[in-house]
């Protein structure tokens, strides 16, 4: 059986703010811990066959070799019962208090141990996003000074970046030791920087090279010469750089890219940036990333605030879907689409920096679990397209293993207990 991956997600961001004193746990703030059964039922109601979800790292990873699996042990059997295939999000913008932050050089190895432990406990899971949005994690934590370590220098940014990407690579390697046919969907922000005047061309070129750093390192691709000098000047050793070149795990990867109206930026001559709104759009920017990495693609995040007339989010959904079809028809192997997230979020209008308790109308459902117009539109989109796309030759046939009752998946017709070979792209 083949699938086009229609997905949504349970928002599980959990960075710290205010010098580490406050944890912004979106699963708690959106009441998911209390209503998780209802949330999973809504996923099934929407028609999504895939769900980005993961146990909260700060609650689960208690110390070296110490884990509390209470949440996962409740939720993952219900995913099996509902036949929803998880894309497991292991680290989403935050680490446990005992690790500290992304400046800690011990984080990558510790996180790999956690990933291995998860894979051993849930061996039927095949799809993973080990570290969500590696580039944004490093930018918001160590360049903008918004989260976690709240630093704002090139050296702190490079330090966070190399630790985050190394953690992702080591986690992939650890999971593959347990599940050799695992697939990794990198959910990474797809960015573009536009020069707002001739004097800004140089600064924009630098930022347009920098936006690829996390995926270049993750996929073992040699970075541009200017970026190599930048990394070396800001603390990355030759040995650290060589580590990324030596780990070639690309064949197990799908390039997930996220696109929001805030992903394109205007750059001034002094290097300052501001949002540009949608200029090129998803299709053009995705083609840039595909041409660089030549991997199957999944649109792993998008949303838009529902405005006064209620139709803004619906129009954005259809615009994103039209862009997905555009890149697919142009020959890019695109395998999935995601509206993120299932329910509304809290305080993302200030990127979680301020504790206002403000509900952001971005979900398929509101915080009372009532459907929004975009939720009804997404349900119809899935119903209309789910039986069309797998028949098309340009849709990659992702080998998702449908497991037997012995593996923890409910028994039924059409289950193939034999794991496929890892795909070769």
UniProtKB/TrEMBL annotation:
Record-linked InterPro entries: GH, Glyco_hydro_1, Glycosyl_Hydrolase_39
GO MF annotation list: hydrolase activity, hydrolyzing O-glycosyl compounds
One Pfam family from the record: Glyco_hydro_1
GO biological process: carbohydrate metabolic process
The entry's keywords: Hydrolase
PANTHER family xrefs: ALPHA-L-IDURONIDASE, BETA-XYLOSIDASE-LIKE PROTEIN-RELATED
Protein name: Glycoside hydrolase family 1 protein
Source organism of the structure: Siccirubricoccus deserti
